[in-house]
Amino acid sequence: QVQLVESGGGSVSTGGSLRLSCAASQYTSFVGWFRQGPGKEREGVAAIQANGARTYYIDSVKGRFTVSQDTAKSTVYLQMRSLKPEDTAMYYCAAVGGNVWLRDPLNAEKYDYWGQGTQVTVSS
User: Fold this and answer.
1) Where are the beta strands (DSSP E) in 8-80?
2) Please, are residues 74 and 95 in contact by the beta-carbon 8 Å criterion?
3) String of b and e for 24-58 (b: at least 16 CB within 10 Å)?
4) How far apart are CA 43 and CA 61, in angstroms?
C-alpha cells in the first residue's frame, strides 16, 4: 500500500507561482497530479515516470507547470508558474501500485492510491 501526503497549496494572484509536493511511502513507477475545480470533472494535469525518465502534461499547463522527482526523498513536485484563475482547483497526487507501465499516465482510472488533496486558489 502506497501512502501519499501532499503539501504546498495556497492562494496566489494571477501570474503567481506555487510548488506542490507529494511524498510517497514507497516506490511506484508512475506518479500523477490531478485536479478538480468547482463544478468541473477531475482532469490529469501532469505525470512522471519513475526516476524522471519521462514526463507528461495536459496541453493547458505545458510551459507553465513542471513535474519533477527527488528520488532520495521519495517526493514528486509540481512547480506551477504563471498561474491563472482557471487553475483554481483541489490538486491530488496519485500513484500506481508497484512497477506498472502506463500508456495513458494522465488517466485517473489507472491509479491505485491517492493523496488527500491540497487546495490551489488563483485570484484575478
Assistant:
1) 10-13, 18-24, 30-36, 43-49, 55-57, 65-70, 75-80
2) no
3) beeebbbbbbbbebeeeeeebbbbbbbeeeeebbb
4) 12
Model confidence pLDDT, tens digit, residues 74-99: 999 999 999 999 999 999 999 998 78
Residue 103, C-beta contacts closer than 8 angstroms, at least 6 positions apart: none
Across 66-78, b (16+ Cβ under 10 Å) vs e yields bbebeeeebbbbb
Average pLDDT, the chain: 95
* Angle at the Cα of 32 from the Cα atoms of 26 and 123, rounded to 5 degrees: 125
Q: Which of 59, 69, 71, 73 has the alpha carbon at shortest distance from 93?
A: 69
d(CA 23, CA 69): 10
Q: How many C-beta atoms lie closer than 10 Å to residue 23's C-beta?
A: 16
